[in-house]
Amino acid sequence: EAIYWLDLILDNVFWTGSRSDLIGFIRMFYIILHFEDENYMILEYYINTTERYLLKHKILFVYERTLISFFRKISRYTLLEDKQKNEFIKVKEQLRKIKQKKNAKNPELEQIYIEAWIDSKILKIPVYEILTMKGKTPDS
């Protein structure tokens, strides 16, 4: 159902040209949802269109570039759980290093939810539990 609602948001003409940072954030989650739904046949397409969107709107920073590269890698290892887990661990460390840089442009909202998703894949527990442990649930 989440994919349906994100489709409506992304296809809505109202959003064109406004809040490109929010649309970029939504596109990242769109990729995650398709990955979770095992829609591997279209995953590469959405990765490419998201990268083009971020480039066009000049919001493809180091953090986003790292995520795009990561999404490409994990989409290739759809059946190899060990390789996927290794990639999740690697990207977690890369994102941690990016966050430590003073001049890096890192959107806080994107970081909280995407990093919680990455942690949930490494630890094999639901995202909501990760957010609860960090005190970052949507209702807090």
Quaternary state reads single chain
Dominant shape: globular
Separation of the first and last Cα atoms: 24 Å
The whole-number mean of residue pLDDT values reads 83
Rg of Cα set:
15 Å
Low-confidence stretches: none
Percent strand equals under 5%
Description:
This protein is mostly helical and about 140 residues long. The protein contains seven helices and no strands. The longest helix has 20 residues, at about 80-100. The two termini are about 25 Å apart.
What's this model, at a glance?
The chain contains 7 helices and no strands. The chain is mainly α and 140 residues long.
Output the keywords.
140 residues; mainly alpha; globular
Helix and strand layout, with pairings?
Layout: H1 2-11, H2 20-36, H3 40-56, H4 62-76, H5 81-100, H6 108-123, H7 127-134
Helix pairs in contact: 1-2, 2-3, 2-4, 3-4, 4-5, 5-6, 6-7
